[in-house]
Each structure stands twice: as structure tokens, then as C-alpha cells.
């Protein structure tokens, strides 16, 4: 198939460059990023920062810095490479790694994205369950807690999966419609929570977190650098891991990468803080105090937290928030599976991805342990993005062939495999041996993988 030639059976251009007539302006991306990042994860992450005992300075200034570095990563790495080649991550990687090797990556990528989408289905389900007086999952829960929970998760997952399966245009349109409602909900929730906390000055606001506290039982203590590095790398798979090549291949120019700031500062800043305020209100309740007095962590259930502040509108906002995160995540997972099974339509593989995500959503642990899970999936997937970045910027200078697998006919590029394997094993061992938080090791693993790829490629290409 020639460059720019459209596949008559699909408008997603899974194995070709996106043609000029399908490229989109900044408005499409602004809505998608604002919707995706002012969304379901925010209702979980804000409260989880409180369970980690962060201080006011660590949270407010740490998030400001970490999110800024994340925007730079999208703008100058992901968007730049996405606009240059206009390929999905999976097809781009196949040209470098070979079909046999990329199958394993696509499988891991797709499954991990399904788990993340499952956590967002869990978030929406906590809102749907409020009118039914459903028992909410606890921070320590792993298994479904009853038939009502199972039925609600399955119904929510089915709706989200069908929307995602209709393709990028539908995902983008859904985000554009929903994101203003969700952003408004976060703003109102924050204002209401400030009133419930009797905040009348900036000093009162600062004292909500003050100098921090001990983490809740079973939670990791977060410092300033935990907040900075985690907020930078919570989306590591998407920016330095290059997953959003699949999104930015539709952009008219790389400057569209700046639209990610809408997601970072509306979502990962304002929304995280607003959600933390909702949880701060709940922590003053007799129910939460009972949990704490018994040495247990009070539950983090976004549905009841939002309902307490905004009533029915809060329930609607949480449902939509989970939706707008799960939608593009399932879409990405579907593209990963489609790269493994190219004969199946994007619609069918996305339905498969949605089904896996719904199954994952039945298990609350993915949502309740979101800080740790997000750190893990970024650590696993981000170093593969270094392969693409280092080849793009250094292949000519280092004397190695770009898209080596495609040009040589190699099905399994050993340089890619060894670079990732060594980086993963070494730094994961460091994390286990010395009890280092995984997000602190994501950048070292990423740099190691890129450098080793160049070294091994030089050797194998010469050979």
C-alpha cells in the first residue's frame, strides 16, 4: 500500500501514514486531552495523595513542576515524532523491531491499557452504584464485593467499549462534549469542599495539608520528589513511551503538542487538588474517623465523594469522568491488539479490549492501588519509547539504519530486545533490592534502553 493511500475498509490508517485530508487541528486535541486528563483517574489520584501523607508544598509546587515537564515531553518528543512519520506506535515499532518482537510488546501494551481502563470503569461504577445504596470497595479490596457491583461494572463497561470501538472521531467527539461538564464539576466540587472545610483564606487552604502526615496503613509516604517524578511519569507510556504517536499522527503540526497542557493543568493540577479536597471533607466524617481509630484506611470511592458535594450532578460527573478516560485508553489498546491481528477490524479488536477492561474493572485493586499500578506500567512500557526517540534523533549521527527491521527483512531485532530486557531487569532489581519507588527508576531505565539500543544496533548492523 502506497503512502497516504486510504484503506477502504478502515478510516483509522493502522498500517499507513495519515493522509493530509484526515489531519486535525488543535481543537480536536484540546478537547480530547482535557477530557482524558480531567477525568476518572483524577477522582482517585487526588484522594490517594492524601492517603500518602503529602504536605501542602509537596503537592502544590510538586504538581506544578512535574506536570510542566510532562507537557514538554509530549510537545518536543511525542508530537514531533508523530507528525514526522504519522504512524501508530505499533506500526512504527514494527518497522524497527520486526513483526515477531513487536507482537510481545503490543500484547503487553494492550493488556496494561486494558487494566488502566478497567480502573476507570471501576470509578464510574462507584457513581452508578450510589442510587442503589451499593457497598463501595475498600482500599484493601481485591475481589468484587457482590452481585450488584458485578452487574453495574458490566453495564458500564459495555457502553464505554462500544463508543471506543467506533473509532478516533467518535472518541474525540465524545471527549469534546463531556470535558466541559467534567471540568465544571471539578471546579464546583472544589468550591463546595472549601466551604465544607470552612476555608476563608489561603492560609486555611494551605493548612489542609500543612506539613504533611504519616501515610495511611498500607500506603507509601510521598515527598516533594515523589510528587514531581510521579506526576511527570504517570503518563510515561504515553509521552516518552511514545504511545501517543497513535494520537499525534493526526495532528497538522507538532505545536499541537502544547494542547496537553489543558490536560495537565486542568486535570492533573486543578482536578487532583479538587478531588483531594473532597476526600479531606470525608476524612472529618464520623465514618472515616472510625476507620482511622481502628487502624484502617478510609475507603476512596469517587461516586459518594462527588455525591456528597454536588448531589446528582456529582454522580453524572463521575460517570462521565470514568468514561472519557476509559474511551481513548480502550481505543489505544484496540490498536495494539489490531497490530497483532491485522485481519480483524479495528471495531472488533476494540470490543475485545473493552471486554478485557470490563473484566479488570470487576476487581477494585486496579483502582485502589492506582499510584503503584501507574508507576509500574510506565516503568514497563516507557523504555520501548526510547528505542523510537533515540533512533529518530541519533540514528544518522551514530551510523545505524532507521527502520532496520523493515529494510533488512528482520523479524526479530535483537538490539531492541536486549536493550529493553537488560534495562528492565537491572532497574527492577534495584527497585526490589533497595526498595526504590519505581517512578524514580523510569528515567534511568529509559535512558539506558536508548543508549543500549544504539550500541547493540551498531554491533548487529555491522555484523
What does this protein structure show overall?
71% of the residues lie in helices and 0% in strands. By secondary structure, the chain is an all-alpha fold. The chain has a single domain, classed as Hydantoin permease (Orthogonal Bundle). α2 packs across α14 (312-340), α5 runs antiparallel to α14 (312-340) and α17 (370-398) runs antiparallel to α19. Mean pLDDT is 87; it is low at 1-10.
Helix proportion of residues, in percent?
over 70%
Poorly predicted spans: 1-10
Number of strands: 0
And the CATH topology? Hydantoin permease
Full CATH superfamily name: Hydantoin permease
Question: Distance between termini?
Answer: 31 Å
**How many domains, as an integer?**
1
Instruction: Please tell me the CATH architecture by its name.
Output: Orthogonal Bundle
Number of helices: 20
Kindly state the mean pLDDT as a whole number? 87
The largest sheet, given as strand count, sense and whether it forms a barrel, is: none
Protein name: Purine-cytosine permease
Keywords: Membrane, Transmembrane, Transmembrane helix
Biased composition (Polar residues): 1-11
Transmembrane segments: 56-77, 103-128, 148-165, 177-197, 222-241, 262-283, 303-326, 347-367, 373-394, 415-431, 437-456
Properties at a glance:
single chain; 463 residues; mainly alpha; 0% strand; globular; disordered N terminus; membrane; CodB
Amino acid at each position: 500500500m502506497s503512502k497516504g493511500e486510504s484503506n477502504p475498509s478502515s478510516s483509522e490508517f493502522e498500517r499507513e501514514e495519515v493522509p493530509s485530508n484526515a489531519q486535525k487541528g488543535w481543537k480536536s486535541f484540546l478537547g480530547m486531552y482535557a477530557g482524558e486528563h480531567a477525568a476518572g483517574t483524577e477522582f482517585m489520584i487526588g484522594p490517594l495523595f492524601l492517603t500518602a501523607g503529602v504536605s501542602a508544598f509537596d503537592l502544590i509546587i510538586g504538581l506544578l513542576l512535574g506536570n510542566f515537564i510532562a507537557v514538554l515531553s509530549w510537545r518536543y518528543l511525542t508530537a514531533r515524532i508523530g507528525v514526522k512519520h504519522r504512524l501508530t506506535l505499533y506500526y512504527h515499532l514494527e518497522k524497527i523491531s520486526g513483526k515477531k518482537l513487536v507482537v510481545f510488546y503490543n500484547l503487553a501494551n494492550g493488556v496494561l491499557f486494558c487494566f488502566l481502563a478497567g480502573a476507570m470503569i471501576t470509578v464510574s461504577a462507584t457513581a452508578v452504584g450510589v442510587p442503589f445504596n451499593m457497598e463501595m470497595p475498600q482500599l484493601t479490596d481485591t475481589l468484587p464485593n457482590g452481585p450488584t457491583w458485578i452487574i453495574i461494572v458490566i453495564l458500564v463497561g459495555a457502553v464505554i467499549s462500544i463508543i471506543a470501538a467506533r473509532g478516533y472521531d467518535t472518541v474525540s467527539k465524545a471527549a469534546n462534549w463531556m470535558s466541559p461538564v467534567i471540568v465544571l464539576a471539578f471546579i464546583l466540587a472544589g468550591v463546595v469542599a472549601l466551604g465544607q472545610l470552612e476555608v476563608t483564606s489561603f492560609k486555611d487552604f494551605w493548612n489542609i495539608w500543612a506539613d504533611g502526615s504519616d501515610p495511611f496503613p498500607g500506603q507509601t509516604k510521598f515527598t516533594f520528589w515523589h510528587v514531581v517524578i510521579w506526576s511527570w511519569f504517570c503518563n510515561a507510556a504515553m509521552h516518552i513511551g511514545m504511545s501517543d504517536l497513535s494520537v499525534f499522527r493526526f495532528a497538522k503540526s507538532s505545536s499541537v503538542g502544547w494542547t496537553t497542557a489543558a490536560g495537565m493543568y486542568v486535570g492533573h493540577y486543578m482536578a487532583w487538588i479538587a478531588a483531594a479536597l473532597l476526600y479531606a471533607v470525608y476524612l472529618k466524617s464520623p465514618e472515616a474517623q472510625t476507620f482511622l481509630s481502628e487502624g484502617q484506611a478510609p475507603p476512596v470511592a469517587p461516586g459518594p465523594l462527588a455525591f456528597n458535594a454536588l448531589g446528582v450532578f456529582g454522580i453524572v460527573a463521575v460517570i462521565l469522568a470514568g468514561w472519557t478516560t476509559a474511551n481513548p485508553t480502550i481505543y489505544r489498546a484496540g490498536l495494539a491488539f489490531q497490530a497483532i491481528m491485522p485481519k480483524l477490524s479495528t471495531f472488533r479488536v476494540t470490543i475485545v479490549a473493552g471486554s478485557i477492561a470490563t473484566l479488570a474493572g470487576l476487581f477494585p485493586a486496579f483502582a485502589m492501588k492506582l499510584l503503584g499500578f501507574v508507576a509500574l506500567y510506565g516503568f514497563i512500557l516507557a523504555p520501548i519509547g526510547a528505542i523510537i526517540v533515540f533512533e529518530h534523533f541519533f540514528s544518522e549521527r551514530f551510523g545505524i539504519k532507521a527502520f532496520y527491521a523493515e529494510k533488512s527483512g528482520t523479524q526479530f531485532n535483537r538490539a531492541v530486545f536486549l536493550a529493553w530486557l537488560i534495562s528492565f531487569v537491572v532497574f527492577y532489581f534495584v527497585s526490589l533490592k533497595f526498595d526504590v519507588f519505581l517512578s524514580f527508576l523510569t528515567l534511568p531505565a529509559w535512558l539506558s534502553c536508548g543508549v543500549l539500543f544504539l550500541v547493540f544496533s551498531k554491533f548487529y548492523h555491522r555484523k
